[in-house]
Design a protein that fits this description.
The complex is a heterodimer of chains A (399) and B (452).
Chain A lengths: L10 E4 L5 H11 L3 E6 L24 H6 L3 E5 L5 H12 L3 E4 L3 H6 L4 H5 L6 E6 L14 H8 L19 H24 L3 E6 H6 L5 H8 L1 E3 L13 E3 L2 E4 L8 H8 L12 H6 L1 H12 L4 H10 L5 E2 L3 H5 L2 H5 L3 E6 L3 E6 L4 E2 L17 H8 L4 H9 L4
Parallel strand pairs in A: 1-2, 1-4, 2-3, 4-5, 5-6
Antiparallel strand pairs in A: 8-9, 9-10, 11-12
Chain B lengths: L9 E4 L5 H11 L3 E6 L8 H4 L18 H6 L4 E4 L5 H12 L3 E4 L3 H7 L3 H7 L4 E6 L14 H7 L10 E2 L5 E2 L11 H24 L3 E6 H8 L1 H10 L16 E5 L6 E5 L3 H10 L14 H6 L1 H12 L4 H9 L5 E3 L3 H6 L1 H5 L3 E5 L8 E5 L3 E3 L17 H8 L4 H9 L18 H7 L2 E4 L3
Parallel strand pairs in B: 1-2, 1-4, 2-3, 4-5, 5-8
Antiparallel strand pairs in B: 6-7, 9-10, 10-11, 12-13
Helix pairs in contact in B: 1-8, 8-9
Classes of the chains: A alpha/beta (399), B alpha/beta (452).
């Protein structure tokens, strides 16, 4: 099989830091783009200091988030604030189709990364800017982290239990969602450029990307003035995480099967009571049903119940942890994991790409780059700087 | 209309419910002509037309399948043709439609598409450079491939619950990582699948324009979801760590949490990143002496005393509105933001200034009038997206598709209508049952409501 090269020959400069920009660039790299990650000399992407670390060793080449979201990229260092560095950036821009950055708007100009400055000599460039609030509006320059994004987007209000505080996921989901939305908009801009020859500025707001998930809570308000909250702690227990013998499962009444199939699967005689056979009956007798459900589920382990539900055309779920996923036969059968050998962090099987495409097989062509690993390859071999130039540029802290 | 990235691209949208319909809506936003393959048999119609609501003033009305707010959001800007895929005529028409289109979106289980003869191999025979997304719960291969799925049950299955959960009190009286998984909710996985499909489609269009080749995208929502928590899975690969449920805390920043404010169910989030933030935070709190408190003097000390910090901060936030806290902290450069609900989002000056919510004017028959919808998280400077257009009425494009596009004559079209294969009303329909809003509050489905 050929490698997945849908974006072969498209060059992306990844000036992003932490998660959102680099994840956008990683997705483009996964589709075959030639991505060069540009980091500040000596310091590197702050993601290098984000834990957890391989072997729990806080080493700048062993950050797990960094290792995950920078595969398939080459890496150079460059101080774009320095006039000489700016010259190098211009040389890189001449070769590039896309630049991705996630600097706060007020700092972008200081770093020479504002749209007007970047495109002065490169009118065909697509510049993708990812921030929390976007490039305009009264909060444009406000600071945010993933937590604040989740809150401000409205997603968090609806997440967690209704009798407790709103809750977020600890894996930077707002930044991943912003990253993939940025990749969508960037590839749309590339398609537009193929037709028109023109580049453009892609303005991505992480909070808006998440707010676009609210296809139920927003019309609840605009259509009938109702405010959707967090999940009720009351009710029948269906569509909720419920305890089974070895963990948690999600029993579901969704799908097209009759109640008798659900009651039959769980296997508790009392569940066949006709009072539970209709949606309104399950609402009416919710508390009683929940107690029976708990009783029935206590006889089941997660995975046998999940698989039996699938075989019966029901759609139950189960709470899996990272180890369950790593060892999951379904993901293994679909070749989700790819072995990667990193010179410092060592060998491990990495999660691969979400979708499978007929056009080629997904590869991790290279591990995340070491800081400045490809300086010589890019600056000397591709841009034509001499070895002596590199010595001077390094000594002066430009690269 | 001429200058959008997907102008001139035609999409056949066979998909149902949330994930793929929403992908189709975004492709329509980007300029594609998206034809939703609807049907006029109540039993097979996209359930967002009939079951999800919400309806204006909680009243489905006679034309309820044209009046559901979630359906409108997910299907904006599309055309609608009705086909009863159980009929061979309909399958033939659909294949003709595919032959003059560029993209197919579908989310049937693998066996259904095969039964209809509409799998990629069959459709490629009529359109060799077709780009097709087949969205399923678990993918078209592997031991779980024929399992159905819904995002709500799928989400913990792909592992989000390993990384979210409330803290639990330990025997030492302090809060520790929690043992009980929680959920993002809001059909989270549907949206991950939707963004993933959009990217795959547009990358495939770039590929097609350079190579002339089509593409089949086997999109397993389970696998997509796992890729979004990849850093958690990789932590297991390196360190054997299975879960990390730390409430709203962070493993380096502190304080870092969600704190109660004045008002019912009002909360604010605060993230103190470093010592500079911490000093500014103590000033903003009006307790500059805290900065000198040895329990909180440096990041590791603060991290070890989060229970104490959270108590101090909650006392302060409880006396203020969520926006007061945000303004006080943001003006000191500290990340802070209110936990907004839909009502607050719709009123917030940032969303308003950026035009995130967009109005659409609906056909008179629907009685919807003008309604606002969520927009996109991105904009393109040179290809400004057109205002949101309403979702299509059932079968509104039947004549356009059958006659103008595919060249069927009046007699053939009439025959299809007589056979019930195409139509513009829902046959055998049962008005959805409605739970009054007061009762929804009692049940905990909504936290309250306003008279609009």
């Amino acid at each position: 099989m050929t490698p997945l090269g849908l974006l072969d020959g498209i060059r992306v400069l990844d000036l992003g830091t932490e998660v959102s920009g680099p994840f956008c660039a990683k997705l483009l790299a996964d589709y075959g783009a030639d991505v060069i990650k540009v980091e500040l000399p000596g310091v590197g992407d702050p993601a290098r200091r984000m834990g957890p670390f391989a072997d729990d060793d806080p080493h700048p080449e062993k950050s797990i988030p960094f290792l995950y979201i920078n595969t398939n990229k080459r890496g150079v260092t460059l101080d774009t604030r320095n006039p000489t560095g700016r010259g190098l950036l211009e040389a890189l821009l001449q070769t590039a189709d896309v630049l991705v950055e996630n600097v706060p708007p007020a700092h972008a100009e200081d770093l020479g990364l504002d749209y007007a400055g970047l495109t002065r000599n490169n009118p065909g460039l697509v510049v993708t800017s990812i921030t929390a609030f976007g490039q305009s509006g009264p909060y444009r320059d406000y600071s945010a982290t993933d937590l604040v994004n989740c809150a401000f987007s409205g997603l968090m209000y609806h997440t967690g239990d209704s009798d407790r505080e709103p809750l977020r996921n600890s894996l930077n989901q707002s930044l991943y969602v912003a990253g993939i939305n940025a990749a969508v908009a960037t590839s749309a801009a590339l398609l537009h450029r193929m037709a028109t020859g023109r580049g453009q500025h892609v303005d991505v707001s992480a909070v808006e990307c998440l707010a676009a998930h609210l296809v139920q809570p927003v019309p609840y308000y605009t259509y009938m003035g109702a405010i959707k909250g967090r999940r009720p702690v009351r009710g029948s227990g269906f569509e909720e995480l419920m305890p089974a013998r070895d963990g948690y499962v999600i029993p579901s009444v969704q799908g097209s099967q009759p109640w008798s199939a659900i009651a039959g699967l769980i296997g508790l005689e009392e569940l066949h009571d006709q009072r539970f056979a209709t949606g309104s009956g399950r609402i009416e007798h919710g508390e009683e049903l929940k107690q029976l459900l708990i009783q029935g589920l206590a006889e089941w382990d997660r995975k046998p119940l999940f698989e039996a539900s699938g075989e019966s055309r029901l759609v139950f779920g189960m709470a899996q942890d990272a180890g369950d996923l790593f060892n999951c036969p379904q993901l293994r059968e679909r070749d989700f994991f790819v072995e990667v050998d990193h010179p410092v962090a060592g060998r491990a099987e990495y999660p691969g790409m979400g979708p499978r495409l007929s056009g080629g097989v997904y590869e991790i062509r290279r591990p995340a780059p070491l800081l400045g690993q490809h300086n010589t390859e890019v600056y000397r071999d591709e841009l034509g700087y001499s070895s002596q130039d590199l010595v001077v540029l390094t000594a002066s802290g430009v690269i | 209309m001429t200058d959008l990235p997907l102008s001139g691209i035609r999409v056949v949208d066979l998909s149902r419910v949330f994930a793929m319909p929403y992908a189709g809506a975004y492709l329509a936003d980007l300029g594609a002509e998206v034809i939703k393959v609807d049907c006029c048999q109540a039993q097979f119609v996209d359930t967002t037309r009939t079951l999800n609501g919400p309806y204006p003033d909680n009243d489905p009305g006679e034309l309820y399948w044209e009046r559901a707010g979630t359906f409108q959001t997910l299907n904006r800007g599309k055309r609608s043709v009705t086909l009863d895929l159980r009929s061979e005529d309909a399958i033939g028409i659909l294949k003709q439609l595919v032959s003059v289109s560029d993209i197919v979106l579908e989310n049937f289980t693998p066996r259904v598409m095969q039964r209809f003869g509409l799998d990629y191999a069959n459709l490629r025979a009529v359109k060799p450079d077709l780009i097709m997304v087949s969205n399923t719960g678990y993918g078209h291969s592997g031991p779980w491939s024929n399992f159905g799925a819904m995002a709500t049950a799928l989400e913990p299955t792909h592992g989000t619950g390993a990384f979210m959960g409330y803290l639990d009190p330990g025997p030492d009286g302090r809060l520790h990582d929690g043992g009980i998984p929680n959920k993002m909710g809001n059909s989270y996985t549907d949206f991950l699948a939707s963004w993933t499909a959009q990217l795959a489609v547009i990358a495939s269009l770039i590929h097609r324009s350079r190579t002339g080749k089509g593409m089949w995208v086997d999109l397993a929502m389970y696998q997509v979801g796992s890729s979004f928590i990849g850093e958690g899975i990789l932590d297991f690969a390196f360190n054997g760590r299975r879960t990390r449920r730390m409430g709203n805390r962070d493993h380096t920043m502190s304080p870092h949490g969600c704190y109660p404010c004045l008002g019912q169910d009002e909360w604010v989030t605060i993230a103190v990143r470093d010592d500079r933030d911490w000093e500014a935070f103590c000033q903003a709190l009006g307790q500059p002496s805290l900065a000198g408190d040895s329990r909180f003097a440096h990041p590791t000390a603060r991290h070890g005393h989060q229970d104490e910090l959270d108590e101090i901060i909650s006392r302060w936030t409880s006396t203020q509105s969520q926006y007061q806290v945000m303004e006080a902290l943001q003006s000191a450069g500290i990340p802070a933001g209110p936990v907004l609900n839909a009502k607050a989002l719709l009123a917030d000056p940032q969303y308003r200034a950026r035009g995130f919510f967009q109005p659409a004017d609906h056909a008179d028959e629907t009685g919807l009038g003008r309604k606002e919808y969520v927009g996109r998280g991105w904009s393109l400077s040179e290809s400004p997206i057109n205002p949101i257009r309403p979702a299509p009425m059932l079968g509104e494009a039947n004549d356009y598709v059958l006659s103008r596009m595919l060249g069927l004559n009046d007699e053939e079209i009439q025959r299809l209508k007589d056979a019930g294969t195409v139509g513009d009303t829902l046959a055998d329909a049962q008005t959805p049952s409605i739970v009054p809003l007061e009762r929804q509050v009692e049940l905990g489905w909504i936290s309250g409501y306003d008279e609009l």
